[in-house]
Amino acid sequence: MNASYSVIPRIITTDKNSAYPKTFDEMQATGAVPASCELRQSKYFNNLVEQDHRFIKRLVKPGMGFWSFETAWRTPKDTR
Question: Which Pfam families does this chain map to (predicted)?
């Protein structure tokens, strides 16, 4: 079922979890993913995602979260 705002993926990139290829093949067999779609696995894919949040983690972790709205408001929203 494709809604008008969805896009059919050409490539799906995941980390190297061994369950992904089998699941991907099953999804292609049932038609949930088109046959033209490709599975690309990257060994440390999750590390790239986690590094993007590194700066905010350093700010938030010592206090285990924001204690007041004012503190949350003062935290930089864009770390790039």
Answer: DDE_Tnp_IS240 (PF13610)
Of the candidates 37, 38, 48, the one whose C-alpha atom is nearest the C-alpha of residue 15 is 48
Residue 33: CB atoms within 10 Å: 19
**Residue 75 main-chain phi, psi, to 5 deg:** -70, 135
Residue type present at position 67: W
CA 70 – CA 80 distance, rounded (Å): 22
Length of the chain: 80
Whether the pLDDT of residue 49 is over 70: the answer is: no
Overall pTM surpassing 0.70 (yes/no): no
Domain ranges of the chain: 1-43, 53-80
Reference 28, options 15, 41, 37, 16; nearest CA is 37
